[in-house]
Structure formats: structure tokens, C-alpha cells
Amino acid sequence: MVNMNFYLTCPNPELTIGVRRHSDMDTLTILLQDGIGGLYIKIPQDVNMEEKGEWVEIPPIFGALVINIGDMLQIWSNGRYKSAEHIVRTTSTKSRVSIPIFTSPQPTQ
Ligand SMILES: O=C(O)CCC(=O)C(=O)O
Ligand SMILES: [Fe+2]
């Protein structure tokens, strides 16, 4: 499934959310974002990183796709691969476009 997201500017971005905190339900999400930014990933508590427990922005890189692990892949891998919790924040100055492709296998016939 392909979505096309358009995030309007908001005069008080700290009072709103572009997309609420969630993880995707699919296997892998392939995301194209424009150059505005606003996608944040929650770094889990159980990793050996300085930013653990924090929301970290995934900066847009021209021509790059973001690959997100979804819940289905977490379940299939018995938790070896963790789905990524994320949010989208808006800005007061620039609207934003993103195009996620949610991949899921067809059910067997
Ligand atoms: O706009 C984005 O960067 C992410 C959108 C998203 O998380 C979603 O559609 O599930
Ligand atoms: Fe998402």
C-alpha cells in the first residue's frame, strides 16, 4: 500500500502532532521524505547508545529512502528485529510531503 502524506504548517507546532506515536503494522516500510524533516524515531531503552530512550530525528538525505521495520517482521523474527516507534512533527514555516510504501506479503490462498 502506498500513502501520500501532506503535513500543513502549524503556527504552534509544539501544540500539535503530524502523526501520533506508533509503529507500522507491516513487514518493511520504504519511505521517501522531502527535504523538510520532522520524522523522529524512539531509540529503545535496551540498546547500547548514548541516545537510548530519546526521540532522534531522521534527517532527510536527498535521494535516500528510509527503511522502517514493522510489527509483522518483529513477530516473524521473534523479536530479533524490532519495529521502530516513530512520530512526525510539523513546523510553523514549511509544509512537508512524505510517501511511505507499506509492504506486506499476500496471504496464502
Ligand atoms: O511522514 C513520515 O515521515 C512518516 C509517516 C508515517 O509514519 C506513516 O504514515 O506511518
Ligand atoms: Fe509510520
Automatic annotation (TrEMBL):
Cited SUPFAM superfamilies: Clavaminate synthase-like
Residue ranges constituting the Fe2OG dioxygenase domain according to the UniProt record: 1-105
Superkingdom as given in the UniProt entry: Eukaryota
Organism: Gossypium schwendimanii
Listed name of the protein: Fe2OG dioxygenase domain-containing protein
One Pfam family recorded for the sequence: 2OG-FeII_Oxy
PANTHER family membership: 2-OXOGLUTARATE (2OG) AND FE(II)-DEPENDENT OXYGENASE SUPERFAMILY PROTEIN-RELATED
